[in-house]
Amino acid sequence: MNNRIIMKAGREKSLLRRHPWIFSGGIAKVVGKPKHGETVDVYSEKGEWLAVAAFSPTSQIRARVWSFTQGRHINKDFFVERIETAHRLREREVCPYTNAYRIVAGESDGLPGVTIDRYDDVMVVQLLSAGAAVWEEAIYDALVELFPDCTVYERSDVDVRGKEGLPKVTGPRRGRVDIPPVIIEEYGVKLAVNVRSGHKTGYYLDQRDARKKVQQYSKGKTVLNCFSYTGGFGIYAALAGAHRVINVDVSEEALEMARYNETLNPIRPGVIEYLKADVFEQLRRFVDEGETFDVIVLDPPKFVDSKQSLNRACRGYKDINRLAASLLNPGGILMTFSCSGLLSPELFQKVVADGCLDAKVDLKIIDRTQQAPDHPIGIHYPEGWYLKGLVLKR
């Protein structure tokens, strides 16, 4: 291979620790003229071979490592092997409980920039890096080889593609062209997922275990489910015997799907209510009206897109947690989450504590949550840990 990256002296240390990212500032020289997403060998300043990676000339992450094994060829067989290995892990960890799970979690599964979520027989793929985009056909072919009856749909419609010099793209890639909402099942709960236009790849698979956890606090209780999307936490709470559930979301489309999800499950009529509203504004209205709840779920979208937005995001997290704490009955439970990877668990706890302090409410942490096990965190890739949650009791 003629195209090579030569690292600056001392900047190979992260690669020797098996971290898969190579930043532009750590590169001394690029030998040859590698194209967008092309495979390159990576060497230390002393000429020692380090890795084989995908080159991305427009990104601060200038290359992402495919393999730390010298001589490893990147081709369809490579993707078959990596996807099969990743799926074996899920077969043990999550398949007994659901037909919807993440098969490939990017760098944590040795496939940088590749996300593959399974919804029954539909595989939804996000390709977020230049290297992943170059090998898209091989990735689709590998999926069909491993899962012959599957449909493959691409959802590469996220802003981060722009940093890699890639346009947003979506659409069917293998199998069926017209894909109706897919009915998934997790822990016996049925949920409809729109893989074509739903959030992320269609649903928040990473919150599966947290949704189940809400059931242990919900029997006979009033439950406020904020940023409810298609109602998952509310469905679980109602099935556990909640007295009253309110789903709040700003999207009427999401609430319509939530209403449909209610019909898929044996829920007593009238238990679940739906409010189309901005959550921040609705929480303030509840405070003004003197409304209180036994269980409150705060599962907002990502507030932090960059380090520059961290302070603003912390103000947002503090505000909603302050309001929620004010609305919590004595003995009540607040389940609060952040899916912002740039917000550390320590900072998240501090922000929530500051919100409780302003609300003059003393809460205790009784449990913590993180992403479900089909979203593993590579031991050499701490950035893979993004979702964190606190279960607090008043």
From TrEMBL:
Record-linked InterPro entries = PUA, PUA-like_sf, PUA_sf, RlmI-like_PUA, SAM-dep_methyl-trfase, SAM-dependent_MTases_sf
Which SMART domains does the entry mention?
A: PUA (SM00359)
Q: Where in the cell is it found?
A: Cytoplasm
Q: Which SUPFAM superfamilies match?
A: PUA domain-like, S-adenosyl-L-methionine-dependent methyltransferases
Q: Where is the PUA domain?
A: 3-78
For this UniProt entry, the molecular function terms from Gene Ontology, in alphabetical order, are:
methyltransferase activity; RNA binding
Q: Which PROSITE patterns match?
A: PUA
Using the UniProt record, give the first listed, main subcellular location. Answer: cytoplasm
Q: Name one GO cellular component term.
A: cytoplasm
Query: What family does the Swiss-Prot or TrEMBL record give for this protein?
Result: Belongs to the methyltransferase superfamily. RlmI family.
- What is the protein's name according to its record? Methyltransferase domain-containing protein
Query: What is the organism field in this record?
Result: Aliidiomarina halalkaliphila
